[in-house]
Amino acid sequence: MRIVVVGTGFAGSALVREFAARGHDVVAVSRSAAGTWPAGVSCVTGTVYDPSFAARMTSDADVLAVALPALSAEGGIVASVRALLPAVHRRVRLGIVGGSAVLPLRTGGPRLGDTDSFPDALRPRVTAHQQALDTLEASPGEIDWFVLVPAAEFGPHAPGTRRGTYRTSRTALVSDANGRSAIGVEDYACAFADEIEAPTTHRSWLTVGY
Predict the structure, then answer these.
(1) Angle, to 10 degrees, between the axis of helix 51-58 and the axis of helix 76-84?
(2) Model confidence, pTM
(3) Quick check: 33 pLDDT over 90?
């Protein structure tokens, strides 16, 4: 399977390594050629905001995995999704690294980003991820997309160690018996690869945690 990964930061680099370890043909797309990648990974420099570049990188792809920041000078994840949708054709499956704050901590509860304890400084990220999700839901029906949302505790500050296990949900963030919602980046990448190899989610989100 040919998988193009757009964005090679914290989550994106983990996706590249997981896909490569499983024997897929992986293309890592970033604005610079920085990084050390496993043998067989192709590194391409470019921007999704260039329509011709976006069309070229998806022309022979089976999957387009997008791991771009919620916010950026160019418009962040919302602008990225809007720029990429015209390049995605029927044969390409689109997978997005989501943001946990758009989901409730428990089924039927408020979004994490709407709770009183959620930091005000992070609320623009919530808006960005919600707008990206809304944009995907409004996309043409033939586009097969999914958003894999990590648990609440996820990021460079909590990379975790690989456990080789995870749980998923379609109603609320996954939490353990102590109420902790967390996932390590390697297990997140494993869940993303599993969803690509054995699809269960179409035109919707799925969340993963321990």
Answers:
(1) 70
(2) 0.96
(3) no
